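Q: My labmate handed me this sequence with no annotations at all. I'd like to see what the chain might look like in three dimensions before we decide whether it's worth expressing. Could you predict it?
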Amino acid sequence: MTVQNHAEKRKLDIARYRRLEREVTDPLAICLLRLIAEELESDLNDARGPVPRGSQGRSPHEAPLAD
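A: Here is what I predict for the chain of 67 residues:
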């Protein structure tokens, strides 16, 4: 399996867990599904390498802080 195929599979897994998270009603299941999805996202981001930081020391994906 190539790195690109692995990343695409991981993205599909994340989407599947996020969809399940929205569909279930059990609070414990929601929490566990959220943790699984976050762990998969973290693994995917780690495999991609470091995230470039913005000029203010934040990731470009983070919202600006309120003054």
